[in-house]
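Lab channel / #folding
Pinned by the channel admin:
"Please post every new chain as: sequence first, then the structure tokens as a reply. Keep commentary short and put observations after the output so the thread stays searchable."

First post following the new format, from NK:
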Amino acid sequence: MAKNMYDWVADRRFNPIKGICSHDCTYCYMRSYWPKMSEPRLDTVSLRRGLKGLKDKRPVFVGSGIDMWAEDIPGEWIVKVLERCKQYGLTYLFQSKNPERFINYLEEDLFPEKIILGTTIETDRSGISKAPSPYERSQSMNKIKELYPEIRRMVTIEPIIDFDHKRMIQMMEWIQPEFVNIGADSKGHGLAEPSAEKLEQLIKDLEKITEVRIKSNLGRLRREG
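Reply from TO:
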């Protein structure tokens, strides 16, 4: 199994929806595989295989290879994946740059019982993908917080891109995540990155709001200051 982007999720992931992601993020680690991939599809073999026999108690990352909540993913595919997840007594991580779409499935009570809903806020800037802007994502997660305060929420700031400090903190205050993950670009995409000083201030101020989980790859930026 491929290495996970988080060390707090199960080694086994669940990716029954496959294909090229329409969000077209400039830094997506899957881009190198796209020449051998096609349009999104529901992999019925993977869906049928499910998660039988999984003993790992850590959350299962569902949809780590494509944003299964992108607007071009048919709703019936998502429902089938959620129904399959419900067959196991596991905790699931669903992460999307289109978290507004989570709300419809929350309203219809289609999610499994134990979930963490996450989004990416890698910067406050727009234009780095075709996904909803970081501001829009933060507003959607804020809405989830207001409507469903019992739902666990997380944010990943990875790969971190240079930002306006005040706006980043404001978005996190809107979301009030259970924890924030921070990581750096590991693939040399040439992203505009914050200085070490700016990064340390962000970490310090985030720790006033929530738990901060720092990935080892952030060490490069912390040393470069």
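NK: The CA atoms of residues 195 and 218 lie 12 Å apart.
TO: also worth noting, Residues 17-224 form a domain with the TIM Barrel fold (CATH 3.20.20.70).
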